[in-house]
Amino acid sequence: MAEVVEEVIAQIQENLTATVTTDGDSSPTNSTGRTPSTPEGMALAYGTLVVMALLPIFFGSMRSVKHHKEQSTAFAKTGEKPDTMSSKDAMMFPIMASCALFGLYMFFKIFSKENINYLLTGYFFFLGVMALSHLLSPVISSLIPASIPKIPYHLSFVQGPPEGGDKKSKEKKYLIDYRFTTHDVVCFIVALVISVWYLIQKHWIANNLLGLSFAVNGVELLHLNNIATGCILLCGLFVYDIFWVFGTNVMVTVAKSFEAPIKIVFPQDLMTNGLSASNFAVLGLGDIVIPGIFIALLLRFDNSLKRKSKTYFYATFIAYFLGLLATIFVMHVFKHAQPALLYLVPACLGTPLLLAVIKGDLKKLLAYEDHPEEKPKAVKNTNEKATKSKNTAEGEEKSTPPAKKETKGKKEAKKAK
């Protein structure tokens, strides 16, 4: 392990002190034996990557609005606040991500890559089935003919109450409480087939289907509560991405060794080798999900303003698109892997803040919260009733002393008579 740490430190020093030298020959070498990509193939690959990056953000953001409404309704009924990322979580995220990344790097250096990838593939296989089922559920449900009945099922696994106890005891705990229909079963079978395809062949199309499902679900379900938390998260990962890509070879090594659907890929030699192509352009899911959850927050902010336009969402969405194009352009010019967040974070943070200053919405933008600190309606009504009854009692107490004075006055008058 000490040798691995020394190697990383040496790599950092080498990258920080290295100077870029160029010669007259600008033609790329192909020492890996891969089929060289044509300009048309590169344009097709990078263009497809951009489209595949934009789609999860757009549809995930739209689905996040519906999920936010469901969370707000549940909060109003139960009073249980939904789980959202706090500012402390956002501060710790880059540190935890760095530890996980470096841990994977050391595992790949010390142990066999094949054995590690077997474990990771199995783990992501089960995650992929669930994520793909959730993504395909509304699509497949709309395609299934009405002649096929939609039968509901309820799967529950309950712990308690203890033997001899009351069956209605509150000690019962639902370890599994899952409701589904026959349509969900069809979705599960389709997702299982795609996941098994990836498990057996590791085909790039199956990889992309699972990766896109992870990205859409991430943007939909991971919620930032406010803009400040989003700024902390993006700025922290901005530094994280630059350090691990430019400072060391850790990020690139893990990305090349990690065989799991955590990235979307597209072959640059598709026109030459067809579906069996192997020279891939790659974009990590983190470069989609992290800016995506911030853009989804801006869409919910737009909805809170109750205006006809979704100005902040569409403006930042276009800024993300331009930042992604800048990443690809710089990578193509310098022939070196680029930290995408280096270009995406300034675009995604600067655009809504500048727009808010121009439109005079800066205070509203910074004050917006998905789930503000407030009590649910049921608690509010109870408190209002308690306050009214208290005020009524106080009013009665205040009105009582004059009546007593009148009684005393009558007694004194009787004694005088």
From TrEMBL:
Region (Disordered): 19-39, 373-417
Keywords from the named record: Endoplasmic reticulum, Hydrolase, Membrane, Transmembrane, Transmembrane helix
Compartments where located: Endoplasmic reticulum membrane
One term of GO molecular function: aspartic endopeptidase activity, intramembrane cleaving
Cross-referenced SMART domains: PSN
One cellular component term from this protein's GO annotations in UniProt: lumenal side of endoplasmic reticulum membrane
Main location: endoplasmic reticulum
PANTHER family cross-referenced by the UniProt entry: MINOR HISTOCOMPATIBILITY ANTIGEN H13, SIGNAL PEPTIDE PEPTIDASE
Name of the protein this chain belongs to: Signal peptide peptidase
